[in-house]
Request: fold
Amino acid sequence: MNTLFKQTLTASILSTMIASSAFAVPTETPPAFVKKVADGLISRLKADQGKLQNNPTAVKAIVRQNLDPYIDSQSFTRIVMGTYATNQNSTAAQRAQFERNFRETLIENYGSAFAKFSNQTYSMRPYKDTGSANPVVTLDFNNNGEKIPVSFQLADKGTQWKIRNINVSGIDLGLQFRNQFAATVKRNGGNLDKAIANFQPDAEVAVNKKK
Reply:
């Protein structure tokens, strides 16, 4: 293979990769994506409502199937680990373990919240495209006459959007979880492995902190 041919082939491959990445964009608008996720989850909860009482395993299974695939756990992990997410402060293995544990405890958190679901409805606030790389879509959930705003911050993952952070009633869960994790590290004497193993993010505590 002569040098000119190799250079031409390399240039061709690179241009194809660049072109592919340039056009690999989500096919849905941010509001359409969030509506799809919300409607899919709510319809499952309503359909199986009779089976969910005192059955956390069933609730977690629904959350795992209908919400977990749309969570950008890598971005969420970086937000929550904060300074511990850098190569200088943690190893790749520690970050991977944190992500696995965090993803599972998120399912536990959302499972507990959705176990209380009883035909709540939601409305979507008008969406304005600001050109941000992380657009935000806000839903107002109606719970026994109380309106609870939930904002979903999204990340462009090429072919679809994913949820990288959530804000409930003005409370940034990523930031609150970061504070909880930092406190866990401190309680474990700065031992990151122990902190990762013992970390239990608590969304209810985070949200109720404002009250």
